[in-house]
């Protein structure tokens, strides 16, 4: 399916999620997930808040499946929860974005999925990693900051860019581990 070996040829597993390249049989689930007015950033003509046209959504789903430009986020039971968007995987800088369906938000899914993908790209593929999102999306901007992404100039209309490094990611993981240890009751 892919001309080169894809960085995510094998599913990426976390404690609560499985991230994998979508297959043709996933198209209907992707269209269901993306049929959401808040999913505007991949449809620049839709920044007015209206729902994307289902034909546009289906076309994007076909493209994502064909080119491997997104990972489908599933829970451990296989329920689709959202997507992680990928670009630039065969250059020196990969770009990631995330989308979680409204009914699954505010449960840490985007954080867990994005962290796993970013660490995988930094540690295993020696890629710089950036994130770009709608400038009005405060939740995504906050998540990018909490994941160690720092703002960088971005020329795309209506969007903001962020970048991170492997050291940034390791520092955050170390800090979170220290906080967890401090919060545990003494035995």
Primary descriptors:
alpha+beta; 187 residues
Please explain how this structure is put together:
The protein has 187 residues and is of the alpha+beta class. Helices cover 35% and strands 24% of the residues. The protein has five helices and eight strands; from the N terminus they run ββααβββαβαββα. It has helices at 27-34, 54-67, 109-125, 138-146, 166-183, and strands spanning 12-13, 17-20, 70-75, 80-87, 93-100, 128-134, 150-152, 159-164. It has an eight-stranded mixed sheet, with helices on both faces. The longest helix is centred in the C-terminal third of the chain and has 18 residues, at 166-183. It is globular and about 55 Å long.
Provide the fold topology.
Blueprint: E1 12-13, E2 17-20, H1 27-34, H2 54-67, E3 70-75, E4 80-87, E5 93-100, H3 109-125, E6 128-134, H4 138-146, E7 150-152, E8 159-164, H5 166-183
Parallel strand pairs: 5-6
Antiparallel strand pairs: 1-2, 2-3, 3-4, 4-5, 6-8, 7-8
Helix pairs in contact: 1-2
Given the C-alpha coordinates, what overall shape results? Answer: globular
Secondary-structure content class: alpha+beta
- Based on CA atoms alone, the radius of gyration comes out at 17 Å
What distance separates the N and C termini? 53 Å
Strand segment count: 8
Number of helical elements: 5
Order of helices and strands: EEHHEEEHEHEEH
Spatial ordering of strands, largest sheet:
1-2-3-4-5-6-8-7
Instruction: Kindly state the percentage of residues in helix.
Output: 25-40%
Strand percentage: 15-25%
**Most strands sheet:** 8 strands, mixed
pLDDT averaged residue by residue = 79
Low-confidence stretches: none
Oligomeric composition of the shown chains: single chain
């Amino acid at each position: 399916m892919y001309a080169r070996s894809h960085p995510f040829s094998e599913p990426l597993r976390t404690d609560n999620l499985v991230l994998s390249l979508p297959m043709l049989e996933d198209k209907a689930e992707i269209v269901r997930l993306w049929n959401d007015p808040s999913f505007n950033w991949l449809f620049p003509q839709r920044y007015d808040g209206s729902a994307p046209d289902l034909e546009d959504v289906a076309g994007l789903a076909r493209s994502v499946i064909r080119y491997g430009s997104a990972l489908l986020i599933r829970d451990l039971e296989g329920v689709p929860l959202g997507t992680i968007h990928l670009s630039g995987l065969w250059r020196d800088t990969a770009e990631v974005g995330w989308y979680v369906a409204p009914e699954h938000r505010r449960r840490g899914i985007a954080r867990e999925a994005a962290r796993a993908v970013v660490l995988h790209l930094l540690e295993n593929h020696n890629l710089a990693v950036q994130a770009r999102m709608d400038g009005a999306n405060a939740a995504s901007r906050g998540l990018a900051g909490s994941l160690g992404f720092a703002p960088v100039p971005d020329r795309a209309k209506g969007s903001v860019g962020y970048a991170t490094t492997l050291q940034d990611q390791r520092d955050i993981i170390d800090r979170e581990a220290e906080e967890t240890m401090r919060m545990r009751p003494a035995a």
